[in-house]
Design brief:
- By secondary structure, the chain is α+β, with helices and mostly antiparallel strands.
- The chain is built from four helices and ten strands; from the N terminus they run H-E-E-E-E-E-E-E-E-E-E-H-H-H.
- The strands form two sheets. The protein has a five-stranded antiparallel sheet, with no helix packed on it.
- A hairpin with a 5-residue loop joins strand 5 (110-116) and strand 6.
- The protein starts with a helix and ends with a helix.
Length: 203
């Protein structure tokens, strides 16, 4: 009987915590940082213009964000944007957003995208200009421009002002997890793990 009470308590707590996993509701129209007097400029962000112009200049993949960090007017609004620029062959490696779903719209070129659900099922799609794809919150996903000649650009909308990004290669191989643990987890040798760690810490 006591164990049932603990199970019920655990379910209630998990439900309560789950309902607060995204952005909290605010009790005013908007949030203004200390020392700021809001005007029309406060509600305007002009930092995405350059990113909408094709391939990134200095990398195979580049993300330009408009989150609450870059655009403080988004605090409390449960929304943000990003422009994803892909050079030919560019990849946004497997990653998750712990606080948000992502709605991706291809605005130039084409992308191969995929997500893995909690049953370990892979869903992939080829998106052309004008196509959209949703990545549910917390699920591992990726995007790649398989075009060998032309760049691709996409817009991503998020249901959080601070979606967060957990890059799997950097998290697994660049965070300092003991290499022996990684080797055993991936059922491989230490030399292979060492190469992956070296690659993750360089990039």
């Amino acid at each position: 009987m006591a164990s049932n009470a603990w199970v019920i308590l655990a379910i209630v707590l998990a439900t309560l915590l789950g309902t607060h996993a995204g952005d909290p509701d605010i009790t005013s129209d908007f949030i203004v940082p200390d020392g700021v007097t809001p005007d029309a400029d406060f509600f305007t962000f002009k930092g995405l213009k350059q990113a909408l112009r094709g391939a990134p200049m200095d990398a195979p993949f580049k993300v330009t964000k408009a989150s609450q960090v870059e655009f403080p007017a988004l605090m409390g609004q449960s929304v943000s944007y990003a422009v994803l620029q892909f050079a030919p062959g560019g990849i946004n490696p497997p990653h998750t957003h712990p606080r948000s779903a992502e709605l991706l719209l291809v605005v130039q070129g084409w992308l191969h995208v995929g997500l893995v659900d909690s049953n370990n099922t892979l869903f992939t799609q080829t998106l052309r200009t004008g196509d959209m794809f949703v990545f549910p919150r917390g699920l591992v996903h990726f995007q790649v421009n398989k075009d060998p000649r032309y760049p691709a650009v996409a817009l991503s909308a998020f249901s959080s002002a601070n979606a967060g990004t957990v890059s799997l290669p950097k998290t697994l191989f660049g965070s300092g997890i003991d290499e022996d643990i990684l080797a055993k987890s991936f059922k491989t040798d230490a030399q292979t793990i060492d190469k992956l760690v070296s690659a993750a810490t360089m990039g």
